[in-house]
Write a structure and sequence with these properties.
Globin-like, Alpha-Beta Plaits, Arc Repressor Mutant, subunit A, 5-stranded mixed beta sheet, rod-shaped
Length: 412
């Protein structure tokens, strides 16, 4: 590439700009901020870095015009580092390239303003400088874009490796809390915030195997938008054939409030995302054991829900928590089984109790559904009390019977 070496008045002005590019830097940053709101929301330290980057980029151009030589390898490496830093500062590639284009245009406008007053400057700008201008800025833009994408790819691979390590820690029996905290913070996740696992049964993703991760990234983007969280706050994994997302809770939320909010989010997701067939919602968990426990709960809710044949698409562990809690204690389980063991020998009584509980203890409605006389219902309820030794007027006793019946139905 032939580089022109400016002369006369144009050289004087270029040398002045090279000594103090402040005017060029200020007008370029104003134009960049007006063209892309991203640059208005940056931290003060990042804004200062952007200003220095504009200064350095403009200085490279001025020096080329004064010396007739390309930027050195050292200069180009510094320039490429500008692009690499934008990855970590949260500036996307489109915004980076737009900023470079707008800044270059402002630099050229400054020269054109000079040319409007100087005839000899006009000719040199038009016939000598402008042919090189396009080549210079095109090559520099390509260089910074390549550096950005390489850094972004490297960061993505690094974060993927850390996320893989994090999932291993979550499902490890050891539950190493210190390592879990270290890896979480390295990824940018706050380990002190509890999370809820959402487990999705998914339709087959109709794409090439090499594109599946990209499709999952697309689905994850939908989840982050609907949950109103940043992409870095959401963690996903494939577990036992289900797609798992750990969604952060609101700090200070109660378990009840969190369960309700996650249920609403899960409902919207299965109604919106075609790839989602059914979803199981775990309960709030903190730390590696909490995250793992929430996944087990979400998957269990799905499994129980699939067996009940209701055709629902949302299954919450909180709906089966009492049943599952009873299953985990042999003594409790045997006790609940004993409550209805004798009733099982009289099917009419068992069916009556189940219907009575399902109808929220409304006797007329229960009798109508069973097709029996109210007096017959009263007799059966009295028999149930005699056999079980409890009172159907006692809410605690009814709760025990309800859990016992649901456990029995689940085991059939």
């Amino acid at each position: 590439m032939k580089i022109p070496k400016v002369t006369g008045k144009l050289r004087e002005v270029t040398a002045e700009y090279a000594r103090d590019p402040s005017m060029i830097v200020d007008r370029s940053y104003r134009a960049i901020s007006q063209s892309d709101g991203t640059y208005n929301d940056l931290s003060s330290s990042t804004k200062s870095d952007v200003m220095e980057s504009i200064r350095f980029s403009a200085t490279l151009w001025f020096n080329s015009m004064l010396t007739g030589q390309s930027p050195t390898d050292e200069d180009m490496e510094i320039f490429r580092n500008l692009g690499r830093r934008r990855v970590h500062q949260g500036v996307d590639l489109a915004s980076l390239l737009r900023a470079y284009r707008v800044g270059s245009k402002e630099l050229w406008n400054a020269y054109l303003e000079l040319a409007s007053k100087q005839q000899d400057v006009q000719s040199e700008l038009l016939f000598t400088v402008s042919p090189y201008l396009l080549d210079h800025f095109d090559e520099m833009a390509q260089s910074i874009a390549i550096a950005y994408m390489e850094e972004q790819h490297g960061q993505s691979r690094w974060k993927d490796a850390l996320r893989y390590e994090l999932c291993n820690l979550i499902f490890s029996p050891a539950g190493e809390i210190d390592e879990f905290n270290r890896v979480s913070e390295a990824i940018g996740i706050d380990p002190t915030i509890a999370r809820v696992a959402l487990a999705f049964d998914t339709n087959a993703i109709d794409t090439m195997p090499s594109r599946i991760e990209a499709e999952l990234d697309r689905v994850q983007l939908v989840v982050t938008r609907m949950a109103k969280i940043s992409g870095s706050d959401l963690v996903r994994v494939m577990y036992r054939g289900r797609l798992i997302f750990w969604v952060p809770c609101i700090r200070g939320d109660s378990l009840l409030a969190s369960d309700r909010r996650m249920g609403e989010l899960a409902t919207r997701l299965v109604e919106t995302v075609p790839e989602f067939k059914r979803v199981g919602v775990g309960m709030m968990g903190l730390g590696p054991s909490g995250w793992s426990g929430s996944v087990d709960e979400a998957v269990k809710a799905l499994e129980v829900g699939e067996r009940d044949g209701s055709g629902n698409r949302l299954y919450r562990y909180s709906d089966i928590a009492l049943n599952e809690g009873a299953r985990r204690s042999d003594n409790v389980l045997r006790y609940l089984e004993s409550l209805i063991e004798r009733l099982s020998h009289e099917p009419d009584l068992l069916r009556t109790l189940e219907c009575y509980l399902d109808q929220f203890q409304k006797r007329k409605q229960t009798a109508d559904i069973l097709g029996i006389h109210p007096n017959t219902l009263n007799y059966r309820l009295e028999r149930i009390q005699e056999i079980t030794g409890g009172s159907i007027q006692d809410p605690a006793w009814l709760a025990k019977l309800h859990v016992a019946i649901r456990l029995r139905k689940g085991s059939l």
